[in-house]
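Render this sequence as a predicted structure.
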Amino acid sequence: MSSTFLQIQSADVVAQDIDVPRRILRLEAGTDVSFSVTATTNMLTAQISAGAGSGSNQTTVLSSSTSFKRRDGVVVAGAFVYNASDYTGSKTMRAVLASMNGSVVRARIFDFSDSSYVSSAALTTASASPTVLQSTSLTLGSSDKLYELHVDVTGAGDINHEGVCSYCEIKSA
């Protein structure tokens, strides 16, 4: 039985004798996933590859737990470089969103290369319960591009109204 997953955990730790927080990352991979890590003082880069059972489907995780308030405006919760040859078939965006105060929260994909939002890549909810949302098929272009995940609390109202994007991905099938 194959096990294709990659789990990333992050923690900021402050030692008693050092006032500067240190970020600790833990990577764990399933049996069908391998990775090599290059670490410097300020950056961690992981090259990830899936085993034979993965096929040509591609999933890019854009966010894992981002909290934002209306006063923050549009927050860049993640970014990825899109290589068109890595994504075959139809592409969709899936996210888990929640509104802490009943305001509408939104997650959108921004095409940084063309300075515009991707059509059909806007998901919204006003639900206080975490809600799984999925877009219709996305058109992401035929050339390499940089995309960002933008999250915000829409409309007028209390500047402290809060939203949470606990997960967001782009998936091809």
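Summary. The chain has no helices and 13 strands. The radius of gyration is 18 Å.
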